[in-house]
Design a protein that fits this description.
It contains eleven helices and eight strands. It has 332 residues and is an alpha+beta fold. The protein folds into two domains: 2-96, Phosphorylase Kinase, domain 1; 106-330, Aminoglycoside phosphotransferase (APH), C-terminal lobe (Aminoglycoside 3'-phosphotransferase, Chain: A, domain 2, Alpha-Beta Complex), CATH 3.90.1200. The strands form two sheets. A five-stranded antiparallel beta sheet has the order 1-2-3-5-4. Helix 4 (143-162) packs antiparallel against helix 6, helix 6 (178-192) packs antiparallel against helix 9 (270-281) and helix 10 (284-294) packs antiparallel against helix 11. InterPro entries: CotS-like, Kinase-like_dom_sf.
């Protein structure tokens, strides 16, 4: 492999009209190298699936045509191709953008939220070419359906456990929190009921952890570190995940600012605000424990210890978030 890499300055980079001064492998990714060249710093990525390459290329070019360019765009070769094919791999070259991970500070997260809203606007209507129709990431369940499915499973389990004479420790602990869980079930039913969900077929979100996908440059501009993977779902899902992250980090007071910054680019409806508030206050940790229990992924002792810890963390975060949630819902 090293002998092959040693030949790249002669086989790959000349096709870009670029001379390599130094080539260093990424410490984590085996398919990435950092190149110092006579035309600045570059990143060389290797694809084993050419369709995935074309998907990333299509997304990046679509975003650029719609006014968004803070993404790694593939540099074309001297022959106009966005890649160089060597043996069983397709290599692409992009500019190396210096930067760092985001910190949870106003200087970082507020421009990151505006950046996220700008991507949402630019991604509207994106479709892969017909021969790549399987490329668009379509989750088995959309956000609202996932929320409704979660509460349906929990509601059924609570009813079932109440009828059991000899309950185990975890069933007992969940039933002790029945009022809290039933309140959450009502909130989700109200905010995510099918009659309240009118998803625009042109809308796209990026999924994952939106803050982790972004990068702060030395100039103060925020970029997406990788080409986003469009998902056919409401963009509010991404914003809600950012708000949940703020709550989990103990920054509930930042949510109003996050929403205000987002709305500078994309306005939110009253129902979308309710969905954000419901999602951010949802006891996700308890739901994860519920599924661990149902799937027998942990021992009873482990689950019992995690249950108390998770419940305490949720109550503390919810107490901090409650006034901001109420204010958020009252302002519209």
């Amino acid at each position: 492999m090293q002998a092959e890499i040693d030949q790249w300055p002669k086989t790959i980079f000349p096709q870009y009209g670029i001379r390599v001064l130094d080539l260093v492998p990424d410490e984590i990714r085996a398919d990435r190298w950092y190149a110092d060249t006579d035309k600045g710093k570059k990143i060389l990525d290797a694809y084993e699936d050419v369709q995935m390459l074309w998907q990333d290329f299509d997304v990046a070019e679509y975003l650029a045509r719609h006014g968004y360019r803070r993404i790694p765009r593939m540099i074309r070769t001297l022959y106009g191709d966005p890649y160089v094919h060597v043996h069983d791999k397709w290599f692409v070259l992009t500019d190396w953008i210096d930067g760092r991970k985001l910190r949870f500070s106003p200087e970082d997260v507020l421009p990151a939220i505006r950046n996220l809203a700008a991507v949402h606007q630019a991604l509207r209507g994106f479709e892969y070419f017909e021969y790549m129709e399987d490329g668009l990431s379509k989750p088995q369940l959309q956000w609202a359906e996932i929320m409704r499915a979660s509460i349906s499973d929990m509601e059924s389990a609570l009813l079932e456990w109440k009828k059991i004479a000899q309950k185990d420790l975890i069933q007992t602990r969940f039933l002790e929190q029945s009022e809290l869980l039933q309140n959450q079930i009502r909130h989700v039913s109200s905010a995510f009921g099918s009659e309240n969900m009118t998803i625009d077929p042109l809308d796209r979100c990026v999924g994952g952890a939106p803050f982790d996908q972004q990068w702060m440059s030395p100039s103060g501009k925020v970029y997406f570190r990788q080409v986003p993977k469009p998902i056919e779902d409401t963009p509010v899902f991404d914003l809600a995940r950012c708000c949940l992250y703020a709550v989990e980090q103990g920054h509930s007071d930042a949510i109003a600012d996050l929403i205000q910054e987002y709305e500078k680019i994309r306005e939110l409806s009253e129902m979308e605000l309710r969905q954000i508030a419901t999602y951010a206050s949802f006891p996700h940790g308890l739901w994860k424990l519920f599924y661990l229990y149902r799937r027998r992924r942990a021992s009873m002792e482990q689950l019992h210890g995690l249950f108390r810890q998770t419940l305490d963390q949720y109550r503390q975060r919810d107490q901090q978030f409650a006034p901001y949630r109420n204010r958020l819902l009252q302002e519209r």
